[in-house]
Amino acid sequence: MKLKSIAAAALAVTTLVSVAACGSASDTNADGQVEIVMWHNSTTGDGKQFWEDAAAAFEEENPNVTIKIEAIQNEDMDGKLQTALQDPDSAPDIFLARGGQKLRDVVEAGQAMDLTDKISDTVKTQMATALDADTIDGKIYGIPQSVLPGGMWYSKDLFAQAGITETPTTWDEFKTVVQKLKDAGITPIAVGGKDAWPAAHWWYWFALRECSAETFEQAQSDKDFSDKCWTRTGDDVQELIDLDAFNEGYLTTPAQQGASSSAGLLANHMAAMELMGGWEPGVVRDLTPDQTDMEDLGYFAFPTIDGGEGDESAIMGGSDGMSVGAWAPDEAVDFLNFVSEKEWQEKYAEAFSTIPASVEAQEVVTNEALKQVLDVYNNASSVSMWLDTVFGQNIGNALNEGVVNMMAGQGTAEDIVKGVEDAAAKG
Predict the structure, then answer these.
(1) Which of 76, 117, 162, 212 is least buried, going by the fewest C-beta atoms within 10 A?
(2) 47 in helix, strand or coil?
(3) What are the boundaries of the signal sequence (predicted)?
(4) Does the CA dihedral 257-263-267-270 come out positive or negative?
(5) Which CATH architecture does the domain made up of 2-148+319-366 adopt?
(6) How far apart are CA 386 and CA 221, in angstroms?
(7) pTM
(8) CA 411 – CA 405 distance, rounded (Å)
(9) How many C-alpha atoms does 413 have within 13 Å on its Cβ side?
């Protein structure tokens, strides 16, 4: 263990030395002009425009700075970023920070700047809670932009068509809702199985309900999945599959790209529900025919499980934040502090139709579904990050793949756990 720690430290030092020697995607000219490269994952609509507007406003106040904005498709981001960060010459200076083990891996490789003493007082006070997702061993390595609690998003109109007057709070009630929707000729649930993680989210949430808080936390820290609750989680997913509640061809359906994606099916009333994070209102808005808010979009918390050991008010979510490369100029941090002020946090919330990380800016949230999720978030006993984020890319990919395999009839609940344990054993 000691030798491993020494090796890791040596690797981090080597990385930082090579960064200093080679430079980075950013470039400071002899005349003081600075170019900053930023990667984010909003490729369309108002969200994409937000970052372009923010960069232009910062450049106007800082004439020596040019910010090059690059929008990367969300499903491609992790892989491209992992590759780019190996070469400081091509690595972005500012990049998406998902938190959890994914962020820890970047930090331990010496690729992320310690922002603890660089963030503004605004960030420290107005984003204190959200900063937890970007804090590793007591140091801050990212600045959050939004909080993204998850749950069930649904069409109020389709529920009404099926004669459903109340949203379900228990799994038994949820199954009744599914049957009513099927009886009315309505596809109950949209799933973007092609991208794996939307399908695996069902396993994540069942795990949160089946496992006690202690067991859930232990698995995150020790990668211990010996408790029987992890197998029951897979059994719950199998029961969901047996309900035949998903859209036709869900295993080849993308999550967010186009009107035929799972989000598009909800946006265009081709399916009644989707299990997603707090980004959902903004995503479905951009997939409606006129690209306006889905007026009948509603939200309810993930149902409780009879006999489950998890806290009934615990929820799962995350935060979209931005980290700064260890090689980046100070102006990169200045830009993130700039967009963290209340004015820009309010603009962020409106552009992305989401909940801003700044508590003072949350009053700008008017979307009724987002108000509901904010209420659930504020009253939650705990908020876990998505499990593939918590466990990191290798274990997370194994988990997501295992869930999809089971949904395709090529695996069992036990196979999912074994796949995760095998990935964990490889380190």
Answers:
(1) 117
(2) helix
(3) 1-20
(4) positive
(5) 3-Layer(aba) Sandwich (3.40)
(6) 14
(7) 0.81
(8) 5
(9) 22
Distances in whole angstroms, Cα of residue 318 to Cα of each of 92, 146, 273, 389? 22, 9, 20, 9
Nearest to 255 by CA among 242, 271, 244: 271
| Structure token digits, residue 81 | 């970023």
C-alpha pair distances (Å), 11 with each of 14, 88, 138: 5, 15, 21
Q: Where are the domains of the chain?
A: 2-148+319-366, 151-316+392-425
Distance in angstroms (rounded) separating the CA atoms of residues 352 and 349: 5
Q: In CATH, which superfamily holds the domain spanning 151-316+392-425?
A: Periplasmic binding protein-like II (3.40.190.10)
Distance CA 423, CA 48 (A): 35
Q: At what angle do helices 393-407 and 100-108 cross, to 10 degrees?
A: 150
**194-235 tens-digit pLDDT:** 999 999 999 999 999 999 999 988 888 888 999 999 999 999
DSSP result, 125-179 = HHTTTGGGGGEETTEE--EEEEE---EEEEEHHHHHHTT--S---BHHHHHHHHH
Joined together, the tokens standing for residue 272 give 């009644």
pLDDT of res. 45 = 82
- Retrieve residue 256's tokens: 């967010």
Residues 6+ apart with CB under 8 A from 28: 34, 35, 329
| Helix H or strand E segment including 95 | strand 94-97
Q: Is 269 exposed, middle or buried (0-12, 13-18, 19+ CB in 10 A)?
A: middle
Contact of 38 with 94, CB cutoff 8 Å: yes
Using alpha carbons only, give the angle 72, 76, 82 rounded to the nearest 5 degrees.
95
d(CA 208, CA 316): 8
* Pairing label, strands 94-97, 297-300: unpaired
Q: What are the Cα distances from residue 401, in Å, to 157, 250, 251, 416?
A: 34, 15, 12, 8
Paired strand residues for 65: 34
**Predicted local distance difference test score (pLDDT) of residue 313:** 93
How many residues are present in the chain? 427
Considering only CA atoms, which of 267, 218, 255 is closest in space to residue 400? 255
- Cα gap 69→371, rounded to integer Å: 31
**Spatial separation of the C-alpha atoms in residues 391 and 386, rounded to whole Å:** 9
Return the structure tokens found at 235: 């059994």
Q: Quick one: tokens of 335? A: 């830009």
